Amino acid sequence: MQTLIFNQGDTSESRIYYCAHYLADSLGLFAAEQLQVTFTTSASGGHTVQGGQVPAVLSRQADLTLGGPMVVMKHYQQHGAELQCFCASVAANPWFLAAAKAQPDFQLSDLRGKRVLDVGNVGTATLTFRWLLAQHGLLDQVELIAGSGDQARDFAAVSSGEADYALHAMHMLAPAIAAGQLSSISSLASLCGKVPWSAYIARADVLTEKAAAFAAFSRAIEQALAWIATHDAETLAASVQHYYPDYPLDALITGLAAYQQAHVFAPNGLIPADEFNHFSQLLGDIGWLDPSQPVPYRALVTQAGAE
Fold it and tell me: Where in this chain does the record put each SsuA/THI5-like domain (predicted)?
């Protein structure tokens, strides 16, 4: 039996759009590959993982993690090709717009003159939304308001009309939508185009040292992603609910269905070069990356076991 230690970051990182590895575990796909995956969090690593899950991987306290290839790109510009993405997980922007009432004919131009409450205040997500507004000539015509830090208060502000829209990941929005407090208006996935928003990440040297284990992990993830594409949200929720013990089942179904409909889950483990390059261009345009320092796909992406 081969083993891998998977550090997921702090507990807030266990989002429902990151369910592929939980599904692989639930369905016995890791076990079928003769692989044991131990899930840990940043808190379990003490001082060795301050700042999140990436330090745990860099220090070899963990073999892999899951996060944005934007982190790998940024790390490359600062430190070189020490980290690599090796298997896809989320293939599109998982952020959504929500409002007090349904707007079935919504178009992005409807944001003109409106107030959007950026509930999450997540750097790259905010910058990406600003990029999207700029692409449609709306950057100076939409009031983007920073969230208060109190999610319940911010959702109530949108529900009452104090703000027009809430911007957040569906993971956070789904409980309010399932409760009837908010309505999902639009996914940002299709608006931003296909981008490798999240992928499994490891040190390049560890990927080489444990090549067989990582290939087995990737094969299991690919099978899980194929399963997600062929089963409804109710069935998916039942298979992963155990891993989200504090998340309401109706919200889990609502959120997973929204992500399936928006094609947020990667179709397989591949990280296409054109999507990686589109993402790096976008991240350079918004100032997350230094646009004068290209991030090479071949140095930062390996397809461990992907078929």
Answer: 20-233
